[in-house]
Amino acid sequence: MPPQSRPAPDLHDAATPGTDNGDAPAHRTLIVAVFVVASCGLAYELIAGALASYLLGESVLRFSTIIGTYLFAMGVGSHLSRYVDERALLARFIDIELMVGLLGGLSACTLFLIYAWAGAPFRVSLYAVVLLIGVLVGMEIPLVMRLLHQRKQAFEALVSRVLTFDYLGALAVSLLFPLVFAPLLGLARTAVVFGLLNAGIGLWLAQRYRSELPQARALMMRGWIVLAVLLAALVWAQKLTDQAEGSLYGDTVVYRETTPFQRIVLTRFQDDTRLYLNGNLQFSTRDEHRYHEALVHPALAALPRARRVLILGGGDGFAAREVLKYPQIEQVTLIELDPAMTRLFRDQDGLAALNAYSLRDPRVRTINADAAQWLESAADPAWDLIIADFPDPSHYALGKLYAVPMYRLMQHHLAAGGLIVVQSTSPWYAPRAFWCVDATLREAGLHTAPYHVQVPSFGDWGYVIAGREAGFRPPTGFPPGLRHASAETVHEMFVFPPDMQAPAVEPNRLNTQMLVRYFEEDWSRQSR
Amino acid sequence: MRRRTFLLGAATLPLLHGCDLRPPGFGVSVLRPGMREGHLLRDAAALPAPSGELRCAVAILGSGVAGLSAAWRLAREGGRDVLLIDGPEPDGNAAASLLGGLACPRGAHYLPLPGPQAMHVRDILADLGILHGDPRARLPEYDEQALVHPAAERTLHQGRWHEGLVPQDTPDSAAAARRFNDAMAAFAARTGDDGRPAFTLPLAACSADTSLRALDRQNFAGWLDRAGHTDPSLRRYIDYAMRDDYGAPPEAVSAWAGIHYFTCRNGEAANAEAGAVLTWPQGLSALTCGLRSRLGDTRRLDGFAASITEQRDGVTVIVVQDALRCLTVRADHVICAMPLFAARRISPGLAERLPATALPTAAPWLVANVLLDGFPHERPGADLAWDNVIHGSRGLGYVVATHQLTRVARPAATVFTTYQAGWANPASARHWLAQAGDDDLLALALGDLDAAYEPRWRARIRAVELTLRAHAMAVPAPGFLGAPARQLREPAGRVLYAHADLSGLSLFEEASWWGDQAAREVLGRN
């Protein structure tokens, strides 16, 4: 707080226009405000652009539309600034600073939350927030110029000085944002920090000029409230953008949720969206089509009369997307444990687009249940194809899903001539585990056809098709629009070169759990 | 959980961290099976006059493992006109509960693979579809659903979970464990001078070789001391094993019985390792319920026998159905499948043959089923197993009722079953258990879980069901092989006895053996 003895600035005994010696402190205050305000204004624009391209991809499109919207909004703000009453310029300017601080500071958090809130109109909210901040920021510079002009600043000097600091502020932020703030604080907290600066400037001005402000107390009160809200957000935003996790996944974490079942994390880097469950990569949008086309088409294309398909697991809806490429399919039942997964991939537009909105298809029935428990008591008619897309058998509880009783249970629910397909880990990295799944299906009395495909983000990945009858032949005709599966590539999938031949393995039994041992030993050998 | 709730929760979490938001209260129910009925008989309460009479060829009194095995054998071999009187607790020590929709045991919960002498058990398992193929095969195949899935056992020792039941944390204790195992393996391989195996199940098939039987004259603790098995870690494990299976510490157990425990499990399987055990979420109730489902036209009657009077041409049994209703049952033969202390109370004939001092010491059990809405946070080391033991604890650890299920994710709820048994003085323990309040019983029953988990684990409790078995099992004290109760093994008259008390070992194999024997005797007479 300035000393009481200091005289309050008086507009009328200010120094002569053209010189800024006499009232230098007053002018300097406003010039500093210009610098900060300009920095913050650009920061919000950059944050919105970065957020949009992280969450939605297509960064060129996002950045240019965000910048366009923002500049347009600033123009609108500039125009609106004319209507601000000359006598209340300073008070309105302070109000605008507080509003920009609050809105801009919370913008990234809010947009993260809206994005996380599956089904909320993220795009509309994004551009609305950008528009609103733009309008407010657009009013700032014209108002500062008018304030300085009131204080008898010569117009020529005024324009050049204000614009100099405006551009200097922009330069500072455009360098600091990508190099310091975003990596160090993350988007959400960076926004809050700039919000604090805006609100701080507002509060500082209110304090500095409290004698000429008719409602200084109310203004200051508002300022402190905004400051408190932002400080709280700073603490909370830390939770939202936990840096440790961000660096764990490499790419920017765009969504995370801890459900009663697992930790769901979505990351995005440019156009690649990745899903991690409990830290394990489930898919990368760059190559998931290879995994899911191989999971579905070799079996389903061989079943021209298939009408009913059961998917155990696969809450991302990708397997369902592939199944729906067959027009004769009448019903797809998808048993996914975690309601958060199916909600995310059904209701969240960006993610639902990835699975071609398969979970919204009327032919798809989604049941949130434990697939093993559900199958034990299922009374549904038999299925033509059962797709077992369970997590890898990395521990005993999961190993049971790959044991003889589970395959007998699946067989019990299989229609005449139907097929089972089981994702079976990597025949390259975990050969004994892969061939153990094959041996277990045979132990359950089924005939098998093991195959594999290259999925760059996973490596060589394996599956086993099983059915009651022997003599499975890889199909040659496939539905249109497949990106990888074709007569040639599918034929190739069933070929195991000499360096990938089946080792001698025991089948996986509930009480011995050989599969878990093979899996652990094989993979630990890889990571050596 | 809705995302909004989650976010709100996440936002307020730091503020509330450390506070326990849940009310401390959860439902506690205490069951004392047989206590009301037993005390009614003990206090010779006046019974109403019988309001009716039932006639049958064979009346089976009690529907525990012995009674059901007898009924099953009779039904299987064409025994006709059989009446099964349930007794105070259907299924006896093999009873089960349903807590929060989850099956869990109220008593015995596993069965070792039956060996070559336990054909009576293999027959039952084959009939129930648990043993596949020929029960007489050298290596039968068992239903893998019932074989214990890994991880089977772990022990908490020095703040860390270790796989298995014997912590071998020092070279000394590892060597001691090896030496003990070798000694037991030598006993297991022995054959008596009568050509019969030294130690097997059932007890009736064990050798009568006097040099082996001499072990019955000393207590197990003394024998261990003299044989040099004194490693403290090993002894804690042996102590646990004795209290678990015999309801008493090694000091109170016959050395023969102690060695028998470590050598009798000689069952093998085509699809499991030697020493494997069978278990079900509901414990041995899976077997008793299986037996019940195969009793053909056997009639069942609720109620318990209040008196048995043997006449020249038959047996009269008074059956109490409730406080107001009694029935007279007249049977050609009675299979008395209840503990001997109870049989002695209602049968003047037996009381004459068997003085009260000749009864085996009965040890109490406290079984707690703890329903949890999720799995508590684990200490470091081995993952949660089926059987979890706290090394050196007075409790017998806990088993996980959902262990054998196949599930994609851990179930949202589970039941941990804790066992307390093996007090040095069974009579005073029984007295304490009888008068203890719910809080004291709870503190005792949850002791091992409190030791295994951080205090916050209790916030997961949704309900606790305590089952107090005052006379749960016979203790095979030194001299038990020559106990007077053995005379009841020889059928005399129209009342045949069938209970594990005839062996002095409270095991499924023994109870089932005597049920089977009694049924065969009745079948032979008709």
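qc> The radius of gyration of chain B is 24 Å.
qc> done
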